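Reviewer 2 asked us to include a model.

Predict the structure of this chain.
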Amino acid sequence: MKIVRFSRGGPVSCGPVSYGVLEADNRVKEITGSIYEPFQFNNNTYNLEEVNLLAPCEPSKVVCVGLNYRAHIAEFKRDQAGLPDDPVLFLKPSTAVIGPGAGIIYPGMSSQVDYEAELAVVIGKKARSVSPTEVSNIILGCTCANDVTARDLQRKDGQWTRAKSFDTFVPLGPWIETELETGNLSIQLHLNNELKQDSNTGNMIFSVPQLVSFISQVMTLLPGDVILTGTPEGVGPMNIGDNVKVVIEGIGGLSNKVV
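Predicted model (structure tokens):
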């Protein structure tokens, strides 16, 4: 099932925001109730072209995992013998989240803004201290993400908060796929239609169940929270006017323009 969040009748500020399910015929069936509880459909159905897709959820926090692909560690010339014993975590604010088609704003204080294609996990239930075997019970589904990073500021600061937290630095979408096995998925990034990242989630150091379980030992996860699971090798800079697209097998494509 593909869960979408959308507006009609112009920009978000002008039209009501709803959730729906995208059917195989590209029709969106609007739902009544919360996507985190059993819901029902109302009588409203729209063609996909009639709606504006938004970020598919509204997280209270975006929990990110760094250094989760060996080849990505290697491209940054980190010691391969020093692979992390535990997942490396950092946070992005909810104000950084944007949806498909929205512009990634190039901040004036940065001179190098990089793309990072990532599989994003959307939490479906409040959870604390779950085991890896219990993780499937608390996940709503998965979507595509771009962990946009001001790389020069990351190097300058020596930590990651400013570089990762600018408004628009968490594109998510285009929908939440609720029926997906996460262990063997192609993950790609195209910059202006040129393939830049091309890997597989099977190359992760820590799997999705391991990541979600570990994070839940640290902080309570709430419905709608998003976990970014790390990026593979091939990260690089974007420039104003560039089009960037994250494509993940079984989900689809997330496209944004740098503005």
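The chain has two domains: 2-53, 62-258. The CA atoms of residues 5 and 56 lie 5 Å apart. We have added this to the supplementary material.
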